[in-house]
Amino acid sequence: MPDWLSFDQFTELVSGAWWSYLVIFAVSAIDAFFPLVPSETTVITAGVLASSGDLHLVLVILAGATGAIVGDNISYGIGTWVGEHTVKRWFSSEKSHRRLEWAERQLDELALAAFWVAILLGIPAGVWAALRQNRVPDLLVRLMALLLGSTPVFFLAILLLDLLHRRLGVLPGPGRLDPYLIPPPPVTGMVTVDALLARDFAAFQDALAHLFLPAFVLGSASAALLARMVRAAMLEVLSQDYVRTAWAKGLSERQVVLRHALKNAALPVLTLLGGLMGGLLSGAVLTETIFSWPGLGRYVTQSATSLDFPAVMGVTLLVGVIYSLLNLVVDLLYALLDPRIRYA
Hints:
This protein is mostly helical and about 350 residues long. It folds into 2 domains: about 40-90, no CATH class; about 95-305, Orthogonal Bundle (MetI-like fold), CATH 1.10.3720. The chain is built from 15 helices and no strands. The protein has helices at about 5-30, 40-45, 50-70, 75-90, 95-130, 135-150, 155-165, 190-195, 200-240, 240-250, 255-265, 265-280, 285-290, 295-305, 310-335. Helix 5 packs across helix 9, helix 5 packs antiparallel against helix 12 and helix 12 (about 265-280) runs antiparallel to helix 15 (about 310-335). The model is unreliable at about 65-95 (pLDDT under 50).
């Protein structure tokens, strides 16, 4: 066992990993019931606007395919034709695989950008409000947190698109890149980083402009929640005796906040950050739909509407793994931030 890892921390690591495995196993067990969801396959295949003749044709073809699969010799010929031409066309996951590959490439970029928006806006605002309690800065932060936290994401996205794109024209519209630009060669999966690696500064500038608005919309609600949490934690810490002693010693406000108050107020904030990161990595359906962003939330929505159950099951399992691992990491970071915490 390495020197930096004590036996208690190793025991906690094994225990957390075991509970994470149980959660992932439970999510996998629930996933097994997805194919049992009742659905009208012919309508999904032919479309809701299909005529009765089209529905009948689809039903005959599907019946032939089913008969061939179960070994019906009469429908073997029709089932073979269906298997080679029709079933592959309608039920092949090639399109789903392309959507998933593109969604995975864009997933980390939007989630990380929104996460940093939440941190850069929420933590300073919460600290500022706590230091100026019941004064104008505190009231402004609380008002903005209330507005951003209660505004629906789709309303904020449409409002900012209409203002900043359609009326003022300072930011580009939906999409990942301008259609006239050639995407940089994929290296990291993040278009902004790949553009920098390829020294394509025009693509980098355009990708960054397209990323700004969805990242701000997605991270604004998290920033509001984070600001309220940081404010509450800081107010509790600032009332402690050791903080008053630091003020009495004549330390500056920056030293008191960074060396004494903020570090001890980080535990509840860390718990919230783990949940926020899990939610951002799991995708944002409304944000990705409005901004035409090829992310995981949009992918799973399209898969659900087309009854692509393996895709939905895979995303569900991925979300369970993300939340389990993030909770495990947060638990292990507690001991690093607060030496009083010891795992037994």
